[in-house]
Specification:
About 35% of the residues lie in helices and about 20% in strands. It has about 220 residues and is an alpha/beta fold. The chain has one domain: Rossmann fold (3-Layer(aba) Sandwich). Its cofactor is Mg(2+).
Length: about 220
Amino acid sequence: MTQENLPSDISIPKHEDSVIEAGRKLFSRPVNFVLGVAQLEQLPPEEKTEICFAGRSNVGKSSLINAITGRKDIARTSNTPGRTQQLNYFDLDGACYVVDLPGYGFAQAPKDIVDTWHMLIKQYLRGRVTLRRVFVLIDSRHGFKKADLDMMKLLDESAVPYQVVLTKSDKLKKGQLEKRIKEVVEALVKHPAALPQIFATSSEKNTGLAELRAEISTLL
């Protein structure tokens, strides 16, 4: 099932062909890892737009970044939750920074390290002027967990615009996915910083990636 086969009345972005093509061209450009940030003092100068990906540990964040950039290993993937241990910055050919945040929620790391990650994330989200959009990844099989709602509350309080990206949508049947999308959209009404349109994606099947690339291209 592709995203295009979903009913038109659910809140899935539909971009014109020209915007889809702009997104394709944007992500066909070179993308390179720049630096890993463990402390705020290590953040690069606020000179270009930043697009951020956030999600619970093992939600498929690295796989999605690899998929939208068309690379196999630009972001490291692992079955071990908590593999991303810092803010990883990727430079998309000078057009923008793509930022991969540490997975929140469960992580196989000492509590003091996890607490440090969480504080770094909070400080980054609350103070980064060039941050244009956060894409919050939710596993379509499970929907919102407490850790997701905590992150969304933080984004609401920080007034950072965000959109939900459902990952692993190929794991659900069409009816199940439609139900999940409607549940998510209804829940977002309660969150002032959330945008109502969401994405249903699959890194394995390339579902929804063209629309996500297009959305990012409109932010630059």
